[in-house]
Amino acid sequence: MSVSDLSDLLNKKSGLKGLCGYPDMRSINHAIHDGDPYARLARKVFIARVRKYLGSYLVQLGGKLDALVFTGGIGENDVTIRQEVAWAFALSISFARALCPDWSI
Description:
- The termini are far apart.
- By secondary structure, this protein is mainly α.
């Protein structure tokens, strides 16, 4: 395997795509709805990793968190991921804010 092939494998064919064949969460959610077990696994792994990193940051912050902000496509468009991440740390999310697409509330 060449360096170029290895770079392509690690940067373009790993992560979510490597786990289930889909490169983005919208496709994964559709596949889960269609019963794809690999898509379900990819989503669980994604949420577990977000929790892992957030937990590590919380330890460094002494357990004190002023705000948890979700950004980007997944953070903005997938309320269930926000809920699953927040609930793992007993954080409550304002459902009005969580569902409001323009965050005007």
